Amino acid sequence: MMQIDCPWCGPRNQDEFRCGGQAHIHRPEQPEDVSDQAWAEYQFSRINPCGLHLERWQHLFGCAQWFHMARDTFTHEIRAIYQIDEDSPGGLE
Amino acid sequence: MTQTPARLNHGGLIDRNKPLNFTFNGQAYTGFEGDTLASALIANGVSLTARSFRYHRPRGIFSAGFEESQALVCIGEGQHKEPNVRATLQLLYEGLHATSQNTVPSLKWDMGSLTGWFSRFLPVGFYYKTFMWPHWKWYEGFIRRMASVAPATSGHDPDFYNKQHAHCELLIIGAGPTGLAAALAAAQSGLRVILADDQPEFGGSLLWDQARIDEKKGTEWVNQITSKLAKLENVTLLQRTMVVAAWDHGYFTAVQKHRIGEHGKISQTLWKIRSAQTILASGAIERPLIFPDNDRPGIMLAGAVRQYINRYAASPGQRAVIYTNNDSAYLCALDLHARGTTVAAIVDVRQDSQGELTRRVRELGIIVHSGHEITGTHGYFRIRQVEIRPVGSSGNSGSRYIRIQCDLLCTSGGWNPSLHLLSQAGGKLEYNEKLACFVPREQQAFLASTIQATGSANGCFDLNTCLAQGHQLGRSAVEELTGKNVSADKAPIAEGSVLTRDIKPHWQTPPPYKGRQWVDYLHDITTQSIKTAALEGFISVEHLKRYTTIGMAADQGKISSVNALAILGQSTERQITEVGTTTFRPPFHPVTLGALAGRETGSRAWVRRFLPLHDWHIETGGVMEDHSGWQRAAYYPQDNETEASAIRREVLSARHGVTLFDSSSLGKLEVRGPDASRFLNRMYINNVETLKTGRVRYGMMLNENGVIIDDGVFARLEDDFFLVSASSAGTAEIAIAFEEWLQTEWPELDVLIHNATTQWATLTVGGPKSRDVITALLPDVDLSAESFPHMSALEGEIENLPRNIPWRLMRVSFTGEVSFELSVPANYALAAWEQLLQAGKPFNITPLGMEALDVLRTEKGFLEVGVDTDISTSPLDVGWAVPIAKKKADFIGKRSLARPNDKREDRLQLVGLKPSNMKQFIPVGSHIITREGLKPEGHVTSSCISPALGHSIAMAMLESGQARQGEMIVIDVDKQHFDAEVVPLGFYDPKGQRINA
After folding, report:
1. Fewest C-beta atoms under 10 Å: which of B165, B207, B273, B739?
2. Of B250, B445, B739, which is closest to A75 when you measure between CB atoms?
C-alpha cells in the first residue's frame, strides 16, 4: 500500500489511484502508415524493468487527474512525480 | 471440581480472587482470571492436549506464546466452534469449553496414531510417490480425512469486526522492556506514538523473568511506565494488538482483539497504520534443541517454563531436566528450584563449565553434565526419562550413557530475533555466527529504511543493553522526525546479568540413535525428512519448505525454521549463510477472515447501485436482479402469474400497446467544447461530424485492439454539445477512457467531459400507443413522425412538476417499436413517472422488465455487447464492414482492423438462427458443431421463443457465418442435436416500418 503524493490532493493511499503502465509512449501520428509489427509494438511491447520505471498514474478516486511517476519497481521507492505533459526530470538513477 | 495440583500457592500475575470454571474434553477444571487455557491446564496437571497432524503422535504444551505448535484446540461448540486455537493465547473465561481436534475417538485413544506404525511407508513427499495405482482418487478421501486438523466453523459468524485507520510519526511494535524504553524516550516529544503489543498486558519478558529495573521489580516498573504513557494524549496504547504485516512506505496492518468468550459483540479491530518511523522491538523466539524422540508431552521451551512458573504460578512438572547450549536456560533451573520443583540435572552440550552461573546451580545441589547430549527419551503420553551421552561419542551406541528420570524436560537451543516484519518490508537479514541467529544487516535498502529493530529483535540478549538501545532509538527517532535534539531522561537501568558464556550451536544429535529427531511438531517433519529431501535434490531452502511442508503449518515455522535450514546446511555441507532463509510473507500470525471483511458483509459485501425509482419497482412487485451492479426489475408479475407468463404479457404490451421502462442507468456523458465533435469522431467507428443538431446516431466504440467495448447512441444537442449514451454496463469504463485520451494523448483538444448519468432519470415510453402517452406530458411539443422522426433529440422544460424542470427527449428504440426516452433530473423521477402512468391508464400502460426487453431486442436481432460479443469480437464480425470502410478519418481501433487476423473470413461472425423444430428453445451457450467431426464451430449467444413470430429464434457466433446464409447447421444441447437454418439477423419487422412510425 504505497503512499502517493498526488500533485493536486497531496499524499493519499495507493488504492485511490490507477496505474496506467509505462509512460512516454505516444500513439503514432498516422496509424495507417505504420506496419503491423510497429503497431503491435506500440500496443503491447513494454520494458518491464527491475528498478527505475517511468509510469503514468491517475488519481481515480480523487481528482481524476493523470500524472507521471518515476518508481523503483523493486523497492517501491517513488523517486519523482511530475506533470503529465512533462518529460522525466534528470538524475533519477 | 478437581484439584489444581500444580498451582503454586503464591506469586504470578493471576487473580486468585477470581476463579473461573472451564472444561477440556468434557472434564471440568478451574483456573483464575489472567490464566491462559494452557497455563490453567498446566496448573491442573494436564499434559496431553492434542495429536500431531500426520502421525497423530501425542502432543502437549510446548511454549507460552504465539509460536505454539503443539497445543492447538477447538474452543466453543456448535456453530461457534473455533478450530486451531492456540491454548497459549486463549484467555481463560468462565464457562470456556475446549476440545482436542483431529482425534478419533478420543485424545487418549486415538486411532490415527496407527499411522505411526506405517510411517516407514509415509516418508517425506510420499504422496508424490505412492497411493497412485490404480488411481490416486481411490486414496484421496481417506488421506484427506487423516490429514485434516479440524473442520471449519460452519455457522454464521455472530461477532462484529471493525476497521480503524491511524497515522502516527512513530510506531513501536512490542511493549517489552525495549519497546517501553523507546516509548518513554519518544513520548514526551508530543509526536504521535502508537505502542502495540500482542499480550493483554504490556511488559513482554518482564512479566516473567524476575528482572529488577531502576531498583524496582520489573512488573512494577512496567506499571509505572504504562500509567505515565496512558496520560499522554499523543500516545495510543494498544494491548492485545498483534502487528501482522508490514507493507510499503511504513504501512502496517495489526489485529486487535477485544472479545473474551462472549459472542455477539465487537470481536476484533483491524488497524491500518501509516507510520513515518517504526521501531521493531518484537523480541526473540526461543528455539529448542533437537534430539531423538524430542516431541513427547512434557518437553517444553525453557523460557516458556519460566513464564508458567513466574507469570502464571503453574508448575509444569515435579522433576525437571534442563537441556541447553546456552546460559539462558540456567535461569529456568534457578526459577524451578526456587518454586519447589526438583531439578534433576542440567545437560549442557558445551564443555565449558566455568562461571558464576554454574557455580550458583551447583550450590543448590543441581548436577551439571557439561559436554553431554540427549540420545534418547522414554514415555508415551508424557516424558519419564532421558538418556544422555558425552558429545562426540557418536557411532558408538554401546558407549556409556546416563539415564535420568524426569517428568519435565526444558530445552533451549538459542533465541531467534523476531524479524519477520522487517523482512516483509524488504529488510535483509544476515547470520551472526557468535550469536547463532539471524540479525538485521547493517545497511537496509529504501524499503526498510524507516524500520529499525532493537533489543533482542536486534540480537541483543542483555536486558541492560536492551533498555539502553530502546531508549537511544526512541530519542534518535524523535530527532530524525523533528530535526531537533531531544533531552530525555536517562535510560532505565537493570541489575547486571550473569549470562556470560557464548552459545554453541548443536543442531541435532548425530547418528546412530534410534529415535526420530523432530524438527516441525505440527507437520511431523524429522531431520531424516530434511536429509531425504536434500538427497532427492531439493537443496534450495524454498524447495525444502515446499517439498517437506516444514514451516507451512499453523505456526508458520516460528519454532522450526532456523533449525531446519541449519540441518539442511549440514546435510548439504553448506554454511547457514549460504542456505539462507525463505521469504517471509504476511501475515505474521493467522488472521481470521472476519477481521479482513470488517463490516463489508451481508448486504454490504458488494457494491449495489439503485435506480431513482427503486422503491416504486419493489412496491409494484418487481423481481430485482443484479445487472452490472445495478438493481433492476427482471419482470413485474401480477396476480400470481408465472415468470414466463409475466414476460410474455409485457412483451405483447410492448408490441401492441404501451410500456414504461426505467432506463435510468444508461450512460449520459456530456461532451462539450469546440473540439467535441472532432474528439468523438476519434472515439467512435461512425462519422460523428456529419451528425446534425437535434439528431441521434447509433454508434460503436472500440479499444485500440479493434475489439468492441461499447455501443449506444450519441445525440448532438448543440453544435458543440454532444450527449453520449453509453450502455449501463460500460459507462464508467467509457468515461474513464475519454478522460485518459484527453489528458494523456490529446491535451490540445478543447473538450470537457461530464458524467451526468446519475443526475438524470430516464423513463422510456414505448409501443404503438407511446406517442399518445408522452404527448400528454409534453402537450406543447410537436412529436409527430414528421417533426420528430426516429433518432431525434429535443430539450425543454416542464412546468409545475411542482416547479419548472428541464427535460431531454430522444426517439431511440431497443425494442423495435416507436419509443421515447424522456430524461428528467433524478429527484423528479417519481413525479414524472406517475404522470406517465396516469396518462397511460386509458391505454393499459404496462411496466416493462429486463427479461421482456431481452426478448424484444432478440426478435429485432439487436446485439448486446458482452452477450453477443466478447473480448475478441470486432465490428467486422457483426456486419459493420461497410460503414467502417466509408469512414476515412482515423479512430481508435481502426488500424487493428487492417491486420491479417482481423480480416480473416473464417472468424466467428454474428448470424441469426431459425431452429427447424419451431418449439425447441435453444439455451444460450449451446455449441454449434460440424456435422462430421463434432468439432465446435460456434455458439448461441441470445435465444427466445418469439411471441411475435410464434417460433424459436436465436443469435449466434458462427465461423464464416456471413458466407453461410441459408445453410443448415447443427446445435448440440446436452448431447442432443438440433438442426437450424442460418438466417439474417432481424427476424421481426426487418424493414423497420414500426420503429419509424
Report:
1. B165
2. B445
Cell of B13: 500475575
**Over B402-447, what HEC string results?**
EEEECCEEEEECEEEECCHHHHHCCCCEEEECCCCEEEECCCCCHH
Instruction: List the grid coordinates of B940.
Output: 448461441
Q: Give CA separation, B918 vs B947, B953, B990, in Å.
A: 12, 8, 20
B261, three cell numbers: 468468550
The residue of B740, B744, B748 whose CB has the most chain A CBs within 10 angstroms, and thus the best one to mutate to test that interface, is B744
Give the mean pLDDT of chain B.
93
How far, in Å, CA of B521 to CA of B807, rounded?
Answer: 73
Contact yes or no for B890 and A56 at CB 8 A: no
Q: Which helix (H) or strand (E) holds B316?
A: none
Note whether B669 and B757 are within 8 A (CB).
yes
The per-residue pLDDT for range B604-657, each reduced to its tens digit, is 998 899 999 999 999 999 999 999 999 999 999 999 999 999 999 999 999 999
Q: How far is A66 from chain B (nearest CA, A)?
A: 7
Rounded Cα gap, residues B607 and B791, in angstroms: 34
- Each residue's pLDDT tens digit, B468-526: 999 999 999 999 999 888 776 789 999 877 788 999 999 999 988 889 999 999 888 99
With vertex at residue A51, the alpha carbon angle to CA A46 and CA A57, rounded to the nearest 5 degrees, is 60
> For residue B831, how many C-alpha atoms fall within 13 Å in the half-sphere facing its CB?
14
* Complete domains list, chain A, with CATH: 17-28+37-42+49-93 (3.30.2270.10)
Determine, for residues B744 and A20 on separate chains, whether the beta-carbon distance falls below 8 Å: yes
Distant-in-sequence, close-in-space partners of B3: CB < 8 Å, separation ≥ 6: none
Residues 25-44 of A with CB under 8 A from B: 26-27, 30-32, 34, 36, 39, 43
Å between B23 CA and nearest CA of chain A: 44
Q: Residue B956 is inside which H or E element, if any? A: strand B952-959
Residue B224, φ and ψ in degrees, nearest 5: -60, -50
Of residues B249, B233, B235, the one with CA closest to residue B168: B235
Residues present in chain A in total:
93
CA B301, CA B410: separation in Å to the nearest integer? 5
From residue B663, give the alpha-carbon distance in Å to each of A15, B280, B630, B824.
31, 56, 11, 12
How far is residue B154 from each of residues A8, B82, B83, B157, B262, measured CA to CA in Å? Answer: 48, 10, 11, 9, 18
Task: Please report the beta strands in B471-581, taking only residues with DSSP state E, as ranges in sequence order.
Answer: 518-520, 525-526
Sheet of B27-33, strand order = B27-33, B15-24, B96-100, B72-75, B82-86
Pick from A29, A42, A56, A77 the residue to mutate for testing the B interface (most B CBs within 10 Å): A77
User: Which of A34, A72, A85 minimises the CB distance to B747?
Assistant: A85
Tell me the chain B residues in contact with residue A75 when contact means C-beta distances shorter than 8 Å. Answer: 426, 445-447
Cross-chain residue pair B251–A84, CB shorter than 8 Å: no
Q: What percent of chain B stands above pLDDT 90? A: 81
Do A77 and B745 lie within an 8 Å CB cutoff? no
C-alpha cell at B895: 488500424
Burial B391-407 (b: 16+ CB within 10 A, else e): bebbeeeeeeeeebebb
- Chains A, B: CB contacts within 8 A come to 62
Q: What is the ipTM for the molecules in this complex?
A: 0.98
Minimum Cα–Cα distance from B738: chain A residue: A64
Contact B447 A3 (CB under 8 A): no
User: What CA–CA distance (Å, rounded) separates B385 from B379?
Assistant: 7
pTM of the model: 0.91
Helix (H, G, I), strand (E, B) or coil at B848: coil
CA-derived radius of gyration, chain B: 38
Cα separation, A86 vs B326, in Å, equals 62
